[in-house]
Amino acid sequence: MIYIAYNFTISPKEVGSEILIAELGEVGFESFVETDLGVTAYIQKKDWREDILSDIQILTSFEFKINFTQEEIAQVNWNIEWEKNFNPIIIDEKVSIRAPFHEKPNGVDYDLIIEPKMSFGTGHHETTHVMVQHILELDLKNKKVLDMGCGTGVLAILAEMRGAKPIDAIDIDAWCFENSVENIERNNCHHINVYEGDATLLKDKTYDVVIANINRNILLKDIKTYSACLKKDGLLLMSGFYTEDLPVIVAETSKYGLKTINLKERHNWIGVKFIKI
């Protein structure tokens, strides 16, 4: 399998990398490895086109200085790439998210072992971070949960560790489907069913909690479906959008009986909790 790799240098790096990764993900880039100077982004050659970066708005922003080089790669050893660049993190001193080659930390309540490969969701991105914080606040014991756009399966795995069952994890990307299955087995989870597909799989399904960490446009399209499969007083956790997107998200959720009850913000990314009334 042949990939096109873009090596970006970004200044300022922290916020710029997050925005760039989000925008690249929307045009088909599949994997991202953070570097000392920025990020390396990968896309399959069959999905690449000459003007692939033409709609990446941050590249023309005066707030950031971004340069890049491009190269073709015949084969990527994802394990080596992630081992070089994936550092373990701890969220709120309660949740550890690490790769199999990291040592287990002391003093955390939940230790998640994630080998991300080409999937999104290591906890490093702001949206995954705030969703973990939301999940930590919920009583999920014996609650039926959906993780929509599951990526690595990290949120579904944490939900099971918090007592949820059964759990459905869905992602439209075949790599994410396979990676979620691997990570679920790696964390000895027994109540998560993984499916490859989109929101059409939710017909006639009902849940106590729906988790959706995707992107703004998909969320807006599927909010109606999420509401339809939520039980009364069920909870919807959504992230994958910026703080300035909140008004349009809230306007759409209010059409379908969803009320905003809490939100968390991290570096201009936001995670919102809604209740079905």
Summarize the structure in words.
This protein has 277 residues and is α/β, with parallel strands linked by helices. The protein has two domains: 3-76, Alpha-Beta Plaits, CATH 3.30.70; 125-276, Vaccinia Virus protein VP39 (Rossmann fold), CATH 3.40.50.150. Helices cover 28% and strands 33% of the residues. The chain has seven helices and 14 strands. The strands form three sheets. A seven-stranded mixed beta sheet has the order 10-9-8-11-12-14-13, with helices on both faces. Strands 2-3-1-4 form a four-stranded antiparallel beta sheet, with helices on both faces. Strands 5-6-7 form a three-stranded mixed beta sheet, covered by helices on one side. Helix 6 runs parallel beside helix 7 (246-254). The chain is globular, with a radius of gyration of 18 Å.
Overall number of structural domains: 2
What does the largest sheet look like?
7 strands, mixed
Mean pLDDT: 90
Strand content: 25-35%
Shape: globular
Succession of helices and strands: EHEEEHEEEHEHEHEEHEHEE
- Write the CATH fold name of the largest domain: Rossmann fold
Q: From the 3D coordinates, which CATH architecture of the largest domain would you assign?
A: 3-Layer(aba) Sandwich
Percent range of helical residues: 25-40%
Rounded to the nearest angstrom, the radius of gyration is 18 Å
How far from one another are the termini? 48 Å
* CATH class descriptor of the largest domain: Alpha Beta
Number of strands: 14
**Residue windows where pLDDT falls under 50 for at least 5 positions:** none
Q: Looking across the biggest beta sheet, what order are the strands in?
A: 10-9-8-11-12-14-13
